[in-house]
Amino acid sequence: MLIVDDLNDWVGAMGGHPNAKTPNIDKLADQGTLFTNAHAPAPLCGPSRASIMTGLAPSTTGIYGHIEDNNIRKANDKAAHSVFLSEYFKQHGYYTAAVGKVFHQSVADGSFDDFGGRVKLFGPYPEKNFKWDQPKTSTDWGPFPERDDQMPDFDSAHWIANKLKQQHDKPFFMACGFLRPHVPWHVPQKWFDMHPAKDLYLPPYMSEDLSDVPEIARIISDHPMMPTTQWALENGEYRNIVQAYLASVSFVDSCVGIVLDALENSEYANNTAVVLWGDHGYHLGEKDKFAKMTLWERATRTPLIIKPPKSSEKQVSNKPVSLLDLYPTLVKMCGLPENPDTEGKDLTPLLHNPNAPWQHAAVTTYGENNHAVKTERYRYIRYEDGSEELYDHQIDKEEWRNLAGDPAYAQVKQQLAQHLPRVNEKWSSQSQYRGNDYFTTKTEQAGGN
């Protein structure tokens, strides 16, 4: 299981950016099923990963913000009885190993047999920030350090690669959590050189994009610690930021390649499933922000590739799926008994036929009772105060025109609302938030920090 932090669709196989260079991820996509309409349970690392590893939605556990790995099962009664994905494999005879960022900090105690560690925060860092120096964020961009072997992701890739060279007397479940392209966008110069700033395509941007969204949408997506697109344009940094993100993606792609090459050259090449996912998407200027933490497409959509054992057939599915679906899918693929306590949908029917009938939607939750519902055509957002957004991706992929107030779409909204969670647990006192004041107040009310 290969996990890439803050990776949006700027991957060659997904066509999200014409300048993306990701040959290793693309090769994996050519050998398995690429889900082009996959979405995170939450647009923030902590709750998204907690949801994936427990198999429970944020609205079920009350984990809406960051949470200490060892406090996940303290969130509420439902979380207390959860079995982490890796634990479920352990219980069924698997050897488990992990390295890097798998849960939010690293891994929960006892969730893996072996853990190769994770570097603190997201370094290495230069002595002084290059471009951006604000509290509450690691955001900065520019070439640093000098060599790949000074990057934690390089070490993580080789740690897993070495595990694949060893003899294993029972089946294994391994997870490698990469840090890039999470900020700071610092990677060695050679990766920047692959993406000359002057030649880069800039994402579509409309300065009045947020004029037709509800007030609460502007409030909860406001992250003053991050640069805005207007700031980047006025200061001549937009192309430099895009370059740095693309460079970070190309670097982490090379680390993915280290692991995939090791698997291909191992005795396990033909009996090992591979799954790659990002924990959520990321805005690179769209909606006037360089950030995650919104319910719009850029923050919820992320790559998902599943390659079953012995598979080398390329498939593409546009069906709406959630990373919450990973737990039951991997369990089914490996022939283990179903865990009835998980809430995701088994994706194996789409692995057999990527265009199979699929009546489900992907739901992303950002704070208590704020949800986005994504189908093949529409994105419907309902906030805790009842306000709404609706976008028709058939005619508006950029989500520039909010149709929620158009009477012609009343029935569409009604149908999409059927996918909203029926349970919205209170914000768990174990779940904290590092972001804007709106959600900080929520966590304080819940007894968090």
Automatic annotation (TrEMBL):
One example GO MF annotation: metal ion binding
Keywords: Calcium, Hydrolase, Metal-binding, Signal
Reported cofactor(s): Ca(2+)
Keyword Metal-binding assigned: yes
Any Gene Ontology CC annotation: cytoplasm
Pfam families cross-referenced by the UniProt entry: Sulfatase
Highest taxon in the source lineage: Bacteria
Chain spans, region Disordered: 427-449
UniProt keyword Hydrolase, yes or no: yes
Protein name in the entry: DUF4976 domain-containing protein
Origin species: Alteromonas aestuariivivens
Annotated ranges, domain Sulfatase N-terminal: 2-335
